[in-house]
Amino acid sequence: MVLTIDIGNSTIAVGGYCGDQLRFLANLRTDRLKTADEYAVLFKSTLELHECSPREITGAILASVVPSLVAPIRQAILLLSGADSLVVGPGIKTGLNIRIDDPAQLGTDFVCVSVAAIHKFSCPLIVFEMDTATTIAAINRDRQFIGGAILPGVKISLDALSQRTAQLTQISLDQPPASVVGKNTADSMKSGVFFGTASMIDGMIERYREVLGDGMTAVATGSLAQPILPLCRHKVVYDPNLTLEGLRILYQKNADPI
Questions:
Q1: Class of 97-241 per CATH?
Q2: What is the pLDDT of residues 181-231, one digit of tens each?
Q3: Residues whose CB is less than 8 angstroms from the CB of residue 221 and which lie 6 or more positions away in sequence, other chains included
Q4: Domain ranges across the chain
Q5: Which of 52, 96, 119, 221 is deepest in the core (most CB within 10 A)?
């Protein structure tokens, strides 16, 4: 079994793959203060919860937007299973044709979703990853990554709204409001978050289509995409495990043959 680990600012997604099949998926809270030993205990408990054993781990690969967590989590996997971990970054083979000003600056989140999206969908492509930040990747007909966009995620926007305004409090994002026109403060905030984000997605799809051309496929992933996509007017394919799929593909490209 290969562990794929996506370290985000808010959560850590852990997937266990046997070949091409996802055996289990877990989402853990990102904690920058945890030590390697503490993460090893957490991963061991997660494996046991899903009826897996550390002895089944033959390899691991991780991508991180939190650089300080790369070393402790690599050490945790080593303590747990004896397996070394590949890290998405300079020197790793991606097969991705990157056409931007400085390819070395491309974030690991862009790399993983782009590799998986090219593998699974027809090009040209626009890929939304909606987590703490929202990223948009653009892939042309020649399967080249040509750039993208980065903007505040849903939760960042909502937190800023609550923290910087005296009379607006935190609200839950469990479900969208019944109407785009809010009848109270909470529903008005939800309207802004849900319908506003959906309108952003629709608008960016239209603008990216002007660059990428007709026949463009729109794909979205990330924990915050699912409740918002039904409000979009354009078709957007939801793929919840796109980042982990990208990590699995990258592991297969880079792992030493047994």
A1: alpha beta
A2: 999 988 898 899 999 999 999 999 999 999 999 999 999 999 889 999 999
A3: 113, 127, 128, 129, 130, 238, 239, 240, 241, 242, 243
A4: 2-87, 97-241
A5: 221
Residue 8 marked in a binding site: yes
Q: DSSP letter at 82?
A: S
* Residue 134 assigned as binding residue: no
> What distances in angstroms separate CA 183 from CA 168, 188, 191, 238, one per listed residue?
15, 7, 10, 30
- Find where tokens 């002007």 sit: 210
d(CA 211, CA 191): 30
| Ligand-binding site membership of 197 (annotated) | no
Kindly name the residue from 109, 131, 187, 239 that is annotated as catalytic.
109
108 is in an annotated binding site: yes
Q: Quick one: pLDDT at residue 122?
A: 95
* Same CATH fold assignment for domains 2-87 and 97-241: yes
Record: fold of 2-87? Nucleotidyltransferase; domain 5 (3.30.420)
Q: Which two tokens stand for residue 158?
A: 């909502």
Report which residue type is found at 10.
Answer: S
Catalytic (active site) residue 109: yes
Report the alpha-carbon distance of residue 217 to residue 18 in Å, rounded.
Answer: 29
Q: How far is CA 93 from the centre of its chain?
A: 20
Three-state SS at 88 = coil
182 neighbors 191 (Cβ within 8 angstroms): yes
* Tokens linked to 195: 């319908």
CA distance 131 to 141: 27
> Minimal CA–CA distance to 120: which of 243, 255, 252, 229?
243
Q: Is 7 among the annotated ligand-binding positions? A: yes
